[in-house]
Automatic annotation (TrEMBL):
Its cofactor is thiamine diphosphate. It holds the Pfam family E1_dh. It catalyses: N(6)-[(R)-lipoyl]-L-lysyl-[protein] + 3-methyl-2-oxobutanoate + H(+) = N(6)-[(R)-S(8)-2-methylpropanoyldihydrolipoyl]-L-lysyl-[protein] + CO2. It comes from Leuconostoc carnosum (strain JB16). The keyword Oxidoreductase applies. Keywords: Oxidoreductase, Pyruvate, Thiamine pyrophosphate. Its EC number is 1.2.4.4. One of its GO terms (molecular function) is branched-chain 2-oxo acid dehydrogenase activity. This is 2-oxoisovalerate dehydrogenase subunit alpha. One of its GO terms (biological process) is branched-chain amino acid catabolic process.
Amino acid sequence: MADITVNNETILDFTKQLKAQNDMFPVLSILNNNGDIVDEEALKRANLSDDDLINIMKRMLLSRQLNIRSTKLAKQGRFGFFAPTAGQEASQMASSYAFNHDDWLMPGYRDIPQIVAKGWPIWKAILWSRGHALGNEFTTEEGEPVNSWMPQIIIGAQYVEATGIALGLKKRQKDAVAYAYTGEGGSSQGDFYEAINFAGAYKANAVFFVQNNGYAISTPRALQTAAPHLAAKGWAAGVPSVVVDGNDPLAVYLVAKEARAWAISGNGPVLIETLTNRLEAHSTAGDDPLRYRKQEDIDAWWKKEPLIRMRQFMTEKSIWDEDKENTYISEVNTLIDEQIKIADKVDKQKISNFIKNTLEVPGYAMKEQIAKFESEGK
């Protein structure tokens, strides 16, 4: 083989390129599995007060209780589609704490807790799962708008929606961003690439989260893509990209806060890969995780889940204890009980309602169908 310059030899060293990709994405971490701070300066940079820490803990506990109760309701046939969230509380709830009311949330179907945290009533979330039209009404109990779109069922499509809203916010010079969540499976979709490429090209006010929870339904992350880190895909679009310990609430909050500040300053979007794990089934539709993963792996991840480390950290700071946690859990369950009753009392939809809701102005044939079904009480 002919001799070439050292520079060109390095360029043609494909093995070295793959290693370089891996080395360029260290994992951001502040709180380890034992609840110990590993970077005091990063904690200071997050600038979280004791009240903030308590609020984040409560948001994560809310998410966990919603997960527990929704799973039970689904088994009773009283809930529609539900995607469990256990294990992803930091990735979802600590990250969303960095955003405010004016920011627009573009969720996937596993991101119900973040919408509830923005003020969406739980009874509407229940109706959404049941396919009721009122479940697509994004307002608070008081009728105020909740800046969120409906949970996206199409994998990764919420990225495209977020990009459009983010560009609109930029053109209107709003001090706000659009933030979107997808799983690692979403990063394999065309919508994912199109969205981050467009957002990067136009420096849209967007923050994108890829929740790398290990499995896209039953497909392990390692079989989806050869990319050493999913965050590396953001570089192809010229987007700053970060990998963070997705079970570390403090690190997740810090990177989300800084990504938001970067985006609203006119610098364009940021892509954040959160390393976490889905501890339960993909959905209540019937998949069995033990068909594609081992119980030992699940048990190991349960020991690293975010509530454990946050609880230990806050207990050591003397701002949290078992009594406070149990009291709050009781309050959440009382709220959920009340919200279930509200959802159950809502009038069931009729066939005529479905036709009425299809178009703002029904066509002639649709009007005939509506009249027919209404005459039959349907």
